[in-house]
Design a protein that fits this description.
1 helix; rod-shaped; 40 residues; mainly alpha
Length: 40
């Protein structure tokens, strides 16, 4: 059993959120590129 302090929980949560944000950002860029290709 891993002992989580409040600080490590917040850090872990922030890491997960940052990862999700990066994935969302990459998907958005990819989508925008596809949109530009369709319009061209």
């Amino acid at each position: 059993m891993i002992y989580f302090t409040r600080k490590t929980m917040v850090m872990y949560k922030n890491k997960l959120e940052n990862k999700q944000y990066c994935i969302r950002y990459i998907l958005m860029i990819r989508w925008l590129k596809d949109q530009n290709r369709k319009e061209a």
